[in-house]
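To assess whether the prediction recovers the assembly geometry, we first specified each molecular entity separately, as shown.
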Amino acid sequence: MHAPRYGVQVELALYRLKNWLTSSSPYLMLLGFVLLIGFWWLSVEVWKLPRFAGMPGPTVVVREWLSRNPEFGLSIYTPEYYLHILTSLQRVMIAFALATLIGVPLGLILGWSQAAREYIFPVLEMLRPIPALAWVPLAILMFKSSEGPVIFVTFLPAFFATALNSMLGVHSIDENYFRAASCLGAKRWQMFWHIVVPGSLPYIFTGLQISIGLAWFSLVAGEMISGEYGLGYVIYTSYTMVSYPTIVIGMITLGIVGYVSSAIIRIVGILLMRWRSRELGLDGL
Amino acid sequence: MSAVAKKIEQPRLRGAIRIEEAVKVYGDPKTGVVAVDRCSFECPPGEITMVVGPSGCGKTTLLNAIGGFHSLTSGAIYLDGELLCGPGKPQAAPGSDRIVVFQNGALFPWKTNLENVIFGPVMQGKLTAREARDKAYVLMSDAGLSGIVNEYPGQVSSGMRRRVEIVRALMNDPKVLLLDEPYRALDALTKSVMHESLLQTCYRNRVTVFFITHDLEESIFLGDQVVIMTSRPCRVKKRLKVDLPHPRDHTTRTTKRFRELMDETMETVHEEAEKAFALGDREG
Amino acid sequence: MLAANMPTSTGIRTMRRAVIAIVVTLIFWEVTSRFGEWTGIQIPFMHVIPPPTRVLAAWYTLLGDAGYWQSWYLSFLRVLAGFGVAMLIGIPFGMLLALSRIFYQITFPPFEVLRPIPPLAWVPAAILFWPTQELSIAFITFLGAFYTIVINVIGGARSIDARYVQSAISMGASRWTVFRRIILPSTLPSIIVGAAVGMGITWEVVVAAEMISGGGSSMGHGGSGTGGGLGFFIWNSYTGGSYEQIVVGMISIGIAGYVSSSAIRAFGNLIAPWLKPR
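The predicted structure of the complete assembly is given in tokenized form:
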């Protein structure tokens, strides 16, 4: 009964693609990128404006990035490049997984139980304003390993964002759903599983997207201060070792990896909440 | 008509509601807002009782008290002779013998219509999932809903959603259906179709219906009894029996008796509506 | 629906529970921190953290230290500078993006492409570009708050109900009047939210930048000099071995950040009173 749907979805996607290509959107977008990269190229390599003199220009960066024998050691052909990416990814994934596994249930409980909220929330609110990176020295003292502080500092803001958004998610559920469920004879734990969890999912996923961004944000700083390997470390050391094009390679890689991880979460959310896409008439992404 | 014949066949009627001097005050008992002021009336079992009044007058409070979501400050409500809430027990516990259908609908958007419908019996463990599904298919096709069984509530029209919600309630064999202005947001054309559909369902099920509305025509068309409430604080202003014959359909609205009943009640309702307008209350 | 009056006993109960929770947490902290001293058994993680009583003692002595207050002053200055510029540029930029379709189509894609790059990744680039360290820190701070503010402004401006605009135009309003009297006030709540969140991010960035430029000594221009600020204070306390001061610094920044965000929210309630919850 659902099979014909997918054929329709593909047609719809192609139709939208055609409309987009024939509108002015893609060309204006191209113009935007041309302006950005053009300005970069012109100011550094052509006009050699005073402030921009010491910086690497786009041709230098691209050449370095795609060369088989990079002058400063990192390109898409060197294994170290992928080692750094993987190290950063691993740290973010661990921190994010912990933040989600602890933050979502905690947030849901805080939303569901008035008593839990009145006891626990004040303590969390006292800890939250402390910036994640202010924890670095304490974390270095607390964790013996070198990975510990970085992962901890990455975990913290992600955890707070996830827990807070999950809690808001529970509060966002219309009270009438709970009333209807109690009319229909559901017990408290059944209400939690059948109403609280699915009802909070939209907010939970918004929170997850925010927290992956925060995780990358803290990770980079943490790696700059106290890590070995990883993209933040690369950017930091490239500066000290005067391998400037590598700085930009690191930045661009960070941007790509960050965007992809955020997109993956968004897609997982859409898949888990198929009732919303159907409701809002969005087919696919 | 066989539906009418069935109506006569089932003698056992349940769901008699008796409201005795119900009072609800929000806030301090002496200085707070009086929502309900000594309301008393009865809803005969198996019949449709329409409760009409201007917006914000406290009818929903009464419904919620029966449903178990609000407490009474004083007075009592009985269901089939047993105390639901009253002295010593100011608030009833919600249960599947009195199921509420809410104004804006409360079908769970993240479950399909079928999953919604089987929710009650499955949660209570009264039926297995398979048995519940079988029963659901029957009830839904009776109500003309077989086509949307596997869709999500958000994908179908609000009229269909109301019907699914009523089926969801009926799956649990409730004694009373508490309807809180369920058709308020629908356009007039859909509404008249929904009315006929509701009557058909009632002919099949003989459940007691407590239906809140502000629409006088709706109440005379659907009801066996109409209770007209005053503006806040709400009291019973007038009760009348609607002696239009069953089965009714849309042609009933043009009969002479229908217009007579409308004339009888129109002034009363209009008076209260003007009072509520002057008060400037937000809708309940 | 008639709102039920909330009895004040609930409010008191909430406060009582909060106080109990915080007191219990502090006791827990004190005990686990000192446990090693009392019994010789060291509780993992907690034993390296100085107990609250010692932290308070250290704080008390710091209150008379001019350097401590100067750290506050420097950090606040940096936060206000970066945040201020981010608001000045971000709000108009965001509005332009929301209101002009063409501008959006040209500018938003590059903006979105740059946004996932964490602000701190720009540190070396900023140092190469700006002549002084202060300006590089200010630039990074600006970036952090800028993205958040722009995104919030776009969201706010876009969600304006078209009917408000249409009814104004049908009553004869000019484009400028529509902008000033409808679009601007409607976007105000989103601007405030963006500002409050952006303020939090600004503090994060300032602390990080101060730690990196103090901690990563090769980053500074000539070693010391223009460092300072609360982030630097924390790092310095760490390298100097005065661990109580680390905690003092952390709590100080927490308070500073909380006060700044609350100030923004209070200011927001002042200029947009129609939003206050009933």
